[in-house]
Amino acid sequence: MSHVLVTGASGFFGGVLKRRLLREGHTVVNIDLEPDEDAEASLPGLTSIRGDLRDPALIQRTFVENRFDAVYHVAAQLAHGMKMDEHLLWTSNVDATKLLAQTARDAGVRPFVFVSTNCLWAANLGHPVNEDRDTPAPIELYGKSKLAAEQCLHQFTDDLDVVIIRCPTIMDAGRLGLLAILYEFIDDNKTVWVVGDGGNQYQFIYAEDLATACILGASFGKSDLFHIGSDNVKSMRQVYESVIRASGSRSRVRSLPKGPTIAAMMLAHKLRVSPLGPYHYKMIAESFVFDTERIKQRLGWKPSLTNEEMLLKSYEYYARHREEISGRTNVSTHRKPASMGIIRLLKWIS
Q1: Given a cut of 90, is residue 84 above it in pLDDT?
Q2: Per-residue pLDDT for 142 more than 70?
Q3: Are 138 and 121 in contact (CB under 8 A)?
Q4: Is residue 236 part of a domain?
Q5: What's the sign of the alpha-carbon dihedral 184, 83, 274, 281?
Q6: Tens of pLDDT along 86-104?
Q7: Is 293 part of a structural domain of the chain?
Q8: pLDDT in the model for residue 41
Q9: Region for residue 341 given its phi and psi (left: phi exceeds 0; alpha: psi -120 to 50; beta: otherwise)
Q10: Domain containing residue 253
Q11: Dist CA 214 CA 220 (whole Å)
């Protein structure tokens, strides 16, 4: 059994990975800006440090006090919301990644798994996006910061076994953030809107499947880059309709005209009255699917849930815990509902 560092393990996916590792008998140290509810519950095998990954003294002390077998770097500052601290986002996602890699190298900890994103693109490429063929082209700060972090890690591949896993939207019970807006519409039997005809395909990844990939990556023994995601990706209209049927909601899926809707989203973003940014209005009516053959062949990984199964699981959690969720404050972005902003007007007329 190993002793590992998981950054961001107070958050949604970091928490999933942390608890998975603990269940399998490993011991885990978590560093996060947010408090760790599992540490407050005295979960065996867990040490949680509330601190800033940009703090060299903290990172150095943590590696001196622990003999880590692997680093899982999950923590990231997101760009969701109507206000964003650009300096905090960039330094947390790029500078902290470099500091972690340097400290891991100096401590002789080779396995270094980095969770990256599909936000490195903001266009429908017309085919499953491949690790070698398709060059990243992010358009907003979050995607640019994650790409910069990837490029930083390439400098350490002689000394670290850097496994980068680019993932689409991570889904499981407890995943909220912007998705909580969709869940509220379904739970209140409101119209669920798609932009255009809703025929676009957008891939998700089940959190436990991503955790499996991270664990496999830590034991891979060399550096590599992998794309990950679900199989058999259906259209967004089909996925929403499947969840509505299974949940017993009276919601219906209807279409908004693509051109005017995207123009309105762009204006709302500029006015800072919408939680949806450039990536969202670029991709809301587009298809985006990763080619996952490499991770299947090299790590022996495969997905276990479809998009509709994941989304239903996540929605059912929201429906069961809605009252408690509405009062959450001191938790990570994906563990609380995003503010609707001007989208609430759309709900009122739905």
Answers
A1: no
A2: yes
A3: yes
A4: yes
A5: negative
A6: 999 999 999 999 999 999 9
A7: no
A8: 85
A9: left
A10: 179-201+232-287+306-341
A11: 10
